[in-house]
Batch of 4 targets.
Target 1
Amino acid sequence: MGKKLLYNIIFTLLFSFQAWCQQSTMEMVKKGMNHIYNYEFHHAHTIIRDIESQSEGSAIPDLMKAMEVFWRHFPIFTKESALSTYQEHLENAYSRSLQVLENDPNNPEATFLAMASQGLLAESYAESGRSFKAVGAAKRAYNDVKDGMSMMDHYNEFYLSTGLYNYYREYYPEAHPIYRPFMSFFMKGNKDLGIRQLEYAARNTSISHVIAKYYLSYIYMRYEYLPVQALRRGKDLYETYPKNHLFKAIYLESLVINQQYQTAAPIARQLQSDRNPYFRIYGDLFMGVIEEKSFFNYHTAEKLYRKTLQLSEAHDMERAYLEAIAYLGLGRIYQHKNDPPQARKYFKESLDRAYTEAQKNEAKSYLN
């Protein structure tokens, strides 16, 4: 877990890279990425082949292939064969980037692509239990993150990686004090500056704007607890990429925390029928919140909260944040049933899993 912060920060580079290349190629990259985000993989594959034929020796096609595999098989870390293919594409991208950097150490395109491929490899190695390789990849990516900080005023895409570093470098040890000694090895950050840089990336980058909005929605929703801002970003992602199930889940959560239950209900029902249990858990959980808080149907809400917990356990998801919401809901229901001992039990379960200050504060308010 000690390296988790760096893995999480650099993991975002899965979604964003800028090809400093001919404008026609850049437009193809943007078009291909839009297809990937919207789960239109056949169209994306055709574009990747065209870029590959026009950009011999570039790392861009390899990184795009990795992204296509990632989204097609999301969550990829549960699928061994897909994970192996994904890592192979990333290793090829890094190798091609190194060939450029050997002759041109300050090449911004190669620096960004090397950073992206190594960061993603670090995350994939960590998730698959290859800790030694994960640490090595993370260290190499960290060096490129630092280089990118000096380039961001010339190449806007670096605002994403810099903003994420600045925010999470400070947030993570605040939320997890046990890791503060470890974090002393990393450059200082600044949460407010990080958010401003992410907002800049959301407005002014060619490709990074998508995942800048994605991470801003999470930061506003779960860490800074600014529901209106979270909804603004979540809605934008959902409306732009309506086929993307992850963006749909984020939008659903942002609607629920803003108590817009009428709009949220049909989206929750869509996710309840999703074939992927990773997304079904969002549908069941937040439909439970809607049943409880909007329809006052406590019996149905309780069944959905229990179903959420069963789904998480059955698929070994370890989704503590979502489990904490389910236990909070069960606690409220048993408080409504006038069963204080059982309610207290569920509130304690929620507190044990609570990931954010908002969750901890709500659970504590019922326990005090």
Note: The CA atoms of residues 141 and 255 lie 35 Å apart.
Target 2
Amino acid sequence: MNAVQLPVLNPPLKGFLRWAYTLSITSAHKETIPWYYSNFIQLFCKKNFLEDGRQYYVDFFRGKPNELNFNNPFLLTCSVNYTILESLALDAWPKFFADQIRSGYYCVVFLDEARLSPAASYQKEPFPHHLFIYGFDWDKKVFYASMFDHTGVYRNLPIPFEEFQDAVQSMRHLLKEKLTADHHTYFYKYEPHFPYPFDRTAAIDQLRDYLNGETHLNRINYIPDNEEAFGIKVYDYLQMYYDAVESNDPRLGDRNDVRHLHVLWEHKKMMSERIGYLVDEGIIPYDEELVEGYKDISKRAMKLRDQYIRHDIRADQEMFERLRLRFEQFRNEEPVLMHKLITLLEG
């Protein structure tokens, strides 16, 4: 087989690539859909971003470790670091990864994305990052990968073997000079799970955690470090972040203003789609207030994100007041809808 492409689907969540990469694999299999809608309810964010100067983030929470680390029941996962791969000659890397793809493994390779021509970071400062590879063509000497390109669009595209090797060699140098840490390379094989019906108990538990601003996941193996806020409390720190942006607070670290609003929209979109799935499957009865309520929140969250993108291009003096208004609205409206959803699921 001189050319292989493993099945992938345009992922439903793209705010962080650990979701985009793993969900692009599992979403291609309809038997994973009940699992998908049983999850992705909880949010979390960083609390101490002004104190320590590190980047603020908002993301879905499915426990620890994160999704790249053995956290998806449908994916057989292997991981290796550069120490293990050190004995592999650079010109042997394309064949090594092509062989894994032939065996049915998707590859998520840690490399310097600044050496890949489609990337926004191309020929700029080093950018250690994970690249998702799902296929190759040996005759054309390319891998088929999914990534955000220089226009900010997540898409599938070819990566020449030569660029791939250059990115690996650059990462080897960065690690040798201790300019970055090794975040490992991962291999995933899709393995059909035993039947996974929609899990009411898991969904209700996550909804309650969201409303209470807490998490009960992984308490056996991980002691909460108090560095993160959960669920409804995320709005407090989103507001704190954008207040700091508005005032040009010098304590702000690396900024990613639009991503936070994109993830917020993905969460509301996911909640709305989940409710539609539950109604369609007969798991809960149709409830107009619930269905239309989350559709409306989702629309407003998307509009808020799009308005901020325009604000980034041309400053809108009313943007930050708009953010305050929307965060307050969502914080007041969501508990009502979530309590209704819990009641329907329990019934």
Note: The mean pLDDT is 95.
Target 3
Amino acid sequence: MSAATLQILIVLAAYTIGVMLLGFISYRKQATITDFLMANREFNYFVLFAAVFGANISAVTLVGVPGLSYHIGWVTWAYFVTTWAWLSPLLYYTIGNRAYVLGKRYDVTTISELLGKRWESKGLQALSASFLLFYLIPYMMVGIIGGGRTFAGLTHGFIPYWVGCLLVTLIVGAYVLLGGMRGAAWVNTFQTAVFLIGGLAIFLVIAYSLGGFGAATSAVVDKYPELMNRSKIPWQKFFSYGIICALAVPVFPNVFSRLLTGKSSKELKKIILIYPFAGLFLFVLMAYSGMWGHTVFPALKGAESDQILGMLLAKFAPAWMAGVLGAAIFSALMSTLDSQLLAIGQILMKDYILPNRKEKTANKSDTTRTRLVLLAFAIIAFVVALYKPAGIIKVVEWAFGGFASMLFPVIAALYWKRCSKGAIFASILVSQFLNISLPLGLIPAAKLGGFLPAFWSIVGGLVILLIAAAITPAPDKQKTDEFFLSFAEK
């Protein structure tokens, strides 16, 4: 091991100890299941912002975005945030404001629980929960993959991919199992500060090492001019991914549950003011950094580019600084990974275990049971990550489509009295069938008009929802009015 690698590992070890300490401090031996999974819905504005932002900004941002911009250029920034930066925060409030009320009144925690309560249907709740879990596993796997690739890049391969994956899984698993939602949110508050400041530092270090912003960009223009335009991404793909990304984020199970953890719905209203600026800021820095990396390491193929930030830091930054900036990358991917792990526990407990046993209320053993379930799913995600699937962006494009297809059923549950249970069933089944089958070639790619398959799954689900709602009987008026009365009384 070189002296530089040793310094990097020492810094990362110090960061890990800090994260674990926060998890230990937040540990509650006698925590109820509501306290463990939702921190008793007690977060103020700053912690709520960090919890929601941290759940959204993941390995996609600090690993996947630089890796994609290495291949297609600066347009990666617009590819992700053209609609996401402004539409997702608006949807946070559109959905979160009313869902928060239901959380207080009915102890709603998950999207599937919301749908089940709205139409008093265990079948609908179980069906939607199944699809949410189905996409959470590959989405959670992305953070583990990002951790493995970043460790390998920072240490020039001294820490092999599988060891990096294992370390990230163990660290996140430990503080989540100890502290639950409260521990994860406290850690996320620290991590958000680390990756926002660290993201800027990474950008400045790389820019300075390449002669400044102008010189680094000019080198790209001279050698790889195609990275400065949109020639590598058709407008159909650009448009469809913008829609998918913006619609998916508010119904990520790990983000949705955190929208319900504030002290009041006013806390949620505050975070949408700063959210777009923080997101735009970070994505710009990462897109340019990855694009510049093409002039330094021009021969990376496919998913190899996911290591580009770690490789640039190992080449240009002093060893100790590379360790600090590497901690920023780990902060981003871990802050999402912990929320995904908790979301799995929330779904299993609130959508499967409690509704299907005689004792409907949680008991003391449920917290222990949930911890064991989370441990099992962390192990599953780690094992699957060892198969080294395609680049991170390829994985999330598919999972995001599955989540985005759930948005319109959720909005219908919160705002559309006339919508029937049958229409929601039909919409979910059709949209998820399309999202799973289209990438497998059910319809030749040439017939999709250049749009991503997930775009058509969203469109198909919405069309079926509108048609089915029009031709099926309206739900019971008395029960519907009682449900919607909750919003009038808030």
Note: The chain has 20 helices and no strands.
Target 4
Amino acid sequence: MEILRNKDHRAWSYGVLLGLLCQIYISPFAYSRYVVSLGTPVLSALLLFQPQLPVFPLTLVMTVTASLLRGCIGMWDLGQPFSDRFVPALIYYGIYSILLSSSFSFLKEYGKSRLMAGMIFFDFLANSLQLALMGHIEGEAVIDSALVAVIRGLLVWGTYWMYEWELLYIRQKEHQDHYAKLNSIVTDIYAEAFYLKKSMEDLNYLTRKSHQLYEDLEAKGQDGQQALDIAREAHEIRKDYQRISQGIAALVHANEEKSMSLSNILQIIQDNTRRQMTQRNQDLSFDVSCQADMQIQRYYDLFTIINNLLVNSMDACEEKGKITLSLVVKGETLEIRVADDGCGMDEDMLAYIWGAGFSTKYDRDTGQMSAGIGLCHVGNAVEHLGGMVEVKSKPSLGTEFCIALPMEKLR
């Protein structure tokens, strides 16, 4: 296959194959030995898909191969003189090749639609001249040659665009999947950055408290050096956190959209959730409903809230179950409900679910507990948006989270 890497060698190889395909033909018109072969439409399709091929050697080799084979087959198989089949083929393919190779570079510059129109016209012209030279100069022959050229051209053009549309659809789907995954990653980073910011505030509070303790101890004549050391260490850690937080914020802002429609948010969430269910081998019913659509600026907060709740629901349902996600706008409030029919929780447990590190999930293979920060992220995001959360849960019956968010914060 090394020979096919050279464009000229590839053109010669294709030319021979096209010459062979020219032997597949039909004779639709009773008034002459005029035939309609497969070679011309395949040549048109080849040049649409690979316009970088050198046209002159390609069509020259095709013309020579097709004409010689046509004459030989007519002589050996049908007992006709060699010229009876050779000459008509040479006239048609020769004229078509000359027209196409001399005009291809010019037509290619104006796009593939004009290139295809040119190839249809050259096919008609070569057909007409062939019929005229064979003694068929009547109007019927001209109409027939035009019909053959147009039908062959439209079939090739339709096939080419069906392929292009399919390719475009695949690329769009891949782009959407990539965008959804990227958005999910950025959302996770955003949530972690938010939690990091909260830790910075806690460290700032610890610094102030430690420094105050130092001053109080010194005022009482006691050694407050340890309290001062704690304040300094907390301050240094806070500075490191701040640098990391600023770097993450810059990364997020460089890749984020200014706003996103609620319908697009839900579509991304739905696709990601179904993908996760497939990866987990979970046979879950997942229903999504939304009664309104609008542009959301704080869409990362919505991703953080909904994605974490859905992951918890998938964990609660294990292999089978039902999860519902619904969004309703009531006045100036967006209500988000995430419900499942999974294992549920005791009432005593509900008071602890928002704490960082609290989890009832663990890896059955390793026994390692989950990080327990999903609901902590949810609580932080809801609080940041000035919203409210209500949880209803019963063991073995499932859990429902109802979140109310003010629209002014989201917009």
Note: The first helix runs from residue 7 to 21.
